[in-house]
Amino acid sequence: xxxxxxxxLVELEGVDFSIYGDGEEVSVQxxxxxxxxxxxxxxxxxxxxxxxxxGDPLDLAAIRQSVREAGAADDQDFASDQTWLEHxxxxxxxxxxxxxxxxxxxxxVKHTADVLVSFRDGYYYGWSPFARMVHxxxxxxxxxxxxxxxxxxxxxxxxxxxxRADDAQxxxxx
Length: 174
What we know:
Layout (H helix, E strand, L loop, with lengths): L1 H8 L5 E8 L2 E6 L2 E10 L2 E10 L6 H9 L9 E2 H8 L7 H10 L9 E5 L10 H4 L11 H4 L16 H9 L1
Antiparallel strand pairs: 1-2, 1-6, 2-3, 3-4, 4-5
């Protein structure tokens, strides 16, 4: 039922995309197509691949091509998670390849969801009377850059241009 639910959700107004775990992969669904994100390890390095089946749900085709042209992908089109971060940090979906994969294929939370949905700004689904009490722009944010990006600053050290939230805490201790 999980793929059917993910596919049905993308037809709802305000849904940007849905994702679900498909074995060791993550499937990305939009109303105009689908893709998958794959992961492998090679020589101790984590590599990801974004493969479109129909359409380009995350609008990453041009970035995938630039990664190839830079020689940063292997012969199977896998590139390091750092390469994906560098090439997508300023994208509409920053660091989406790794972030979406990890959100379903790791143990960030005690009970990982079967399906995750990213809503466009201005949409949420839930208890309708709640909308009369508060103005919600989105539910728990979404995968778009305004909900994904933050800033990290210090008066006594220099940070890399882009830092993942998972990597920020150890930087603060040094």
